[in-house]
Amino acid sequence: MAKRGTDPFKKITLSAPHILLVEGKDDGLLVESIVRKMKSDGQLSEDVDIQVHCCWGRTNFGEQLRAIRSIAKFPETVVAVGAMRDADESEDSAFESIREAFRRNGMGPPTRIGAFTEGEAIRVGALILPGRQSSGALEDLCIRALPRKTKPCIDEFLACMGIDEANRSKAHLFAYLACCSRPGLRVGEASEAGSIDVHHAAFDDVRAFIKTMVNA
């Protein structure tokens, strides 16, 4: 099973050789759902251990990485560290911020999004969401996995409500989730409940990133 990390104000423990740092709780729940599906589908071995660690914000990757690296058994336990965050305004800027977090912690940064370093004792990599060289966030990636027939209806509703562009992706996704069998779930919870189809091709890059991380 993927193991979820603790919040930044509690003692951090290491429980797996593969560490995946994520920006927020929803990202962590989504990744854990994808890992479970990959194992049930035979895409990952059942004995693969991935510790999903929430950084509680895009500015905390360096601090959380430093805390993890300070654990005495880090060098002998961990073989790969991945980082996954939102692009927000710029995919390139988000990637560079992750690269800088690795550099500040004495780890050679990845050179390409989605790829891991090679030839190092501990391999590192970064994935920026939603991918496809786009700005945006986790919600934009999840919207790609929604049934296409729902888009015109939701777009009409958002236009009626006067939702501005800055909040449109979150509003679109939450409007869809509000109409599912269990309304009111957050993104991560919805992925666990099946309201967001984690088998969808929209998550191919996430699956590929996980496979790259665990396959040395």
How do you describe this structure in short?
Helices cover 42% and strands 12% of the residues.
- Secondary structure class reads alpha/beta
Low-confidence residue ranges: 5-9
Q: What is the highest CATH level, the class of the largest domain?
A: Alpha Beta
Radius of gyration: 17 Å
Number of E strands: 5
Count of spatially separate domains: 2
Terminal CA distance? 19 Å
User: What is the level-2 CATH architecture name of the largest domain?
Assistant: 3-Layer(aba) Sandwich
What is the molecular shape? globular
Q: For the largest sheet, list the strands in their spatial order.
A: 1-3-2-4-5
SSE layout and pairing:
Layout: E1 2-4, E2 18-22, H1 25-40, E3 50-54, H2 61-69, H3 74-77, E4 80-86, H4 91-104, E5 123-129, H5 138-144, H6 151-161, H7 168-178, H8 187-193, H9 204-214
Parallel strand pairs: 1-3, 2-3, 2-4, 4-5
Helix pairs in contact: 1-8, 2-4, 5-7, 6-7
